[in-house]
Design brief:
The complex is a heterodimer of chains A (about 160) and B (about 400). Chain A has about 160 residues and is an alpha+beta fold. Helices cover about 25% and strands about 50% of the residues of chain A. Chain A is globular, with a radius of gyration of 17 Å. Chain B is globular, with a radius of gyration of 23 Å. Classes of the chains: A alpha+beta (about 160), B alpha+beta (about 400). Bound molecules: fe (ii) ion.
Chain lengths: ~160, ~400
Amino acid sequence: MLRTPGETRASAYLEVAQFVYSTVVRLNAKNFTGWLELCADNFSYSIQAWSPEIRRDMTWLQHDRSGIDSLVRQLPRHNTDESIFTRHATVYTIDFDRDDAATVVSALTVYRTDLDGGESRLFAVGHYHDQVVRDGERWLLGRREVRLDTRSLGIGTHYPI
Amino acid sequence: MPRNAAQWNRTPPLPPTHYVDPLVYTSEEILAQERDKIFARAWSIACHESEVPERYDYRTYRHPAGKNLVVVRGDDGTIRTFFNVCPHRGNTILYNPAGNAKHLLCIFHAFAFDCRGNCVAIPREKAGYQERIGKGDFGLRAVRTEVGFGGFVFVNLDDRAPALETFIGEALDGMRASLEAEPLEVFTFHRAIVRTNYKLWHDTNSEFYHDYMHYHNRQTSMAAPGYFERRYTAFPNGHAQVGDQVVNYEAYEGFKSRDLSFPGMALNQWKMVDLFPGMTYNLRGSSLRIDTLCPISPLETAIEFRGLGLKCDTPAERAARVHDYNTIWGPFGRNLHEDLLGVLGQGRALERGQTYLVHGREEDSTIHDEVGMRHFYAEWSRWMGRSSSDPSADGASGVNGAAHREAALS
Ligand SMILES: [Fe+2]
């Protein structure tokens, strides 16, 4: 079936947005290996924040693909707060650099829910700045920068956000 | 063998120097006294000089004695500290944590102060105050300030306290050359608010027996040569140093030997000093971590973490230091989360049912000896005028020891 250019564009937007949401679904399920399957071989991941206290940009975590693979592989060996982390993302903008590559900015809130009693509290507010690339029929994460507004993170976490 | 209530409440069969009463962590009255007797008299790190690099730069600081301060670099380059409080109606003067301001202006009624703490403007001064009171009476409260030991801005609320050099003594001698060879620069800052007592964080920094909780440290330190030979050195005024070690970072998957160190330090060398009453210098070769503490309530503490490199770092060097620091010590680092989880658990347990905390290990002052904590509490007891193992014993507190403990422990 032939599609108009407008229809093609709308479906590409939808695909990319759904892809970003699928990364969130896997992270929320603590399916980190499944999340990595949605990441390109040259994937890079970072968590950054601006500090008004020291008036500098801070990089709190930065890994290439093998670094983030190692991090995920070693999670079970660490003592970790096993609370549930629920990321809520809303895709704000999708800018296609090419037909097969886009820059996506999503608003992000993350809640931490205690296992004991189930109390939920806001953990962090920020944005995802993603580079997504098409690989045949599917999309992959080429880069994810988590930009956090929240800098007071309690005991922190071992998990990717 | 499980113990019944009477057995559980009995003091441990150790000298009183070797355990701490849980009241020391949970009592409002004791915290109030710590603010007056310890924090209001001891030196505290407010920030690093690199946080106020330019003239008229300022940085606010919540002091653990409960005062809000502001550190200001003057027109003469000197760093001074004042209460961040307008002497007119008690408002906060500077709301942002850092910035640059030629005049410190209180937005409430536009009283203005210069960078040396003088009141320089009062709107319609003569019309309202005539000659009765004026700018000369509205100077800011200056707080003693000394910059040193790696460019840190130390402050003391007590105008009669001994000088900073006297207070620190020789405690930092083992790393001082590395701290002072080059100007340092802060590259990361974060504050963790944790439901725990501030001393429990300092305790964690003062003992290495808890390395069993750190997968990373078990691999890279405990299994490396020299670990069990590391010794504690106790210094006057409650400070303590842990012996150095060369860390084998490659024993943890994904980590590699550091490419950088601090001046005068071997690659991968680790040095650590705890300063009374709640500061830690933690130098893992390529980056320096500084912990400072501010109690909010007995079981709520703000812990501030700073990471530092050399001011002369190239961008590539800085990136390496940032990476080395944050993979272990950042809010998403492998070790920090575990340490914070540990003290959170202590805070939770102390809320729900209390026990004596045992500092009983004696191993010739080597790494799993608990002498670092014992040394801290001996000093704490001196400053407080009460024993950390039986804080209600002097009767002056108004805490009825037996009754209170029974209620607390049951
Ligand atoms: Fe630790």
